[in-house]
Every structure is written in structure tokens, then in C-alpha cells.
Amino acid sequence: MAERLRKQEEEEKRRKLEIAEKQARKMEAFVEEKEKEVLQLQEEAKNFITPENLEARIEECLDNPRNYNFAINKDGRIVKRTVLS
């Protein structure tokens, strides 16, 4: 009887430990994923327009105009483009 209770207690402890380890692995994976997201956002933030770089970005856009007014056919080829003024 005491042997059976001891085995049940050991089994319960083992299950609780496995659950705790599984939760720790999930939390670690979650933290790692969030760290990757933060690094990606920091990388994207380098291209943001700020008051400090506003003039330079305006000059860059004026020096390199782009025309986004075009049509594409079903194959994905550009078929008509308007003249850039």
C-alpha cells in the first residue's frame, strides 16, 4: 500500500516536472520569436522618415522620381506605362 502511494507520488511529481519543462520550452520559443520580431522592426525603423532626415528624403525623392501608374496583363507583364511628367 505504501509502495503504491509512493509510486503515485513519484509519477505525479514526474508529470508536474514534464509539464513545467514543456511550459518553459514554450515560453523560451515565444521569447525567441518576439526577439526576432523586435530585431526585424528595428531593421525596418532604419528606413523611417524622421524630422532629422526629412529634407534628405525629400531631396532623394525629387532626384529619383518613380512612376507607379501602369497596367499589367494576366501574365504579370507591364503593358502600359504613362509618361512621367
UniProtKB/TrEMBL annotation:
Q: Does the keyword Chaperone apply?
A: no
Can you say where in the cell this protein is located? Mitochondrion
Could you tell me which InterPro entries the record lists for this protein?
Ribosomal_mS26
Which parts of the chain are coiled coil? 2-44
Q: What is its main location?
A: mitochondrion
Q: Write down the superkingdom of origin.
A: Eukaryota
Keyword rRNA-binding listed: no
Protein name stated in the entry:
Small ribosomal subunit protein mS26
Q: Which UniProt keywords apply?
A: Coiled coil, Mitochondrion, Ribonucleoprotein, Ribosomal protein, Transit peptide
UniProt similarity note: Belongs to the mitochondrion-specific ribosomal protein mS26 family.
